[in-house]
């Protein structure tokens, strides 16, 4: 008989505290989702000063008792402030992250898709048994909106003034007229931004998510632009005649079932002097390094199970890279294998992503 291990009561308390802190985080994240969806942060940010829960509820068109309980959760979590007399407010920093969609630090996109992401728990339980995951459309239309809201703020603020000028000669080439593809384009934000800035160039977005493609088509129509379109690469593949000047992949190679095949398709599509802007998660080579150096590692491995790796395993034979599975050295090796000879890291500062210029 094996001996019953002795339990240290202090270590037991500490462990339980650490575990339930995560549950507190999950539930509070749900309250952040509600605050965003119900417009509560926007009301707080637009107010002249702190509000009572009656004022907050009235301005948001909600019931006070519900708003009061929500505000207590948020103030206990220190996301909103509470002043003497029970008035709730929001700091300028919290307002930037929670109530200012055009601020580069705006962060409500990931909370937008929290219910869809957590609903994936039901789907992936089976995936652990079958090995087969679920693509982005399994998160429904709001999943695509959440992705759009997650990536657009930083991109709107940085793509044109910071990222594209970091590539020598690119802006001039786009101004003169270039053929461009954005693969894994999601709701088309980057395509529309670039198409508006470079009217001489033509931009084609590719994605396999029907919800994302529908949003992209709608946004394109609203923009009135005529130098862009969107396609599903399973029906309309990339060109194979080395005709593209510039290709972008933002946060999507690690989500693909067949990234190796995609890189070979990019190699066939790109001109001999073409440029591929490869943007992906700043992953490190081993679990140990990610766990030690990335404070977001638990979040990222979890999102991988629920979203990224699940997508990357969503068909038989999927390579399954996942959120932290595409480190710089993996990217270098895979792009070289696909026939690219030049790989440079670009000097673009981002909290989560690395930016690489890959060339034939
Ligand atoms: C994390 S999202 C990024 C979307 C977009 N690039 C952005 O920055 O908002 C990943 C996208 O890759 C798409 N995707 C996955 N596999 C793909 C494939 N084989 N071809 C094209 N798109 C793919 C997904 O449908 C999803 O829209």
Description:
The protein is an alpha/beta fold. The protein has two domains: 9-100, Winged helix-like DNA-binding domain superfamily/Winged helix DNA-binding domain (Arc Repressor Mutant, subunit A); 114-359, Rossmann fold (3-Layer(aba) Sandwich). Helix content is 51%, strand content 14%. The longest helix is centred in the N-terminal third of the chain and has 29 residues, at 9-37. The radius of gyration is 23 Å and the shape is globular. The model has no long low-confidence stretch (mean pLDDT 97). Bound molecules: S-adenosylmethionine. Residues 136, 147, 151, 183-186, 189, 206-209, 212, 233, 250-252, 255-256, 262, 311 line the site of S-adenosylmethionine (SAM).
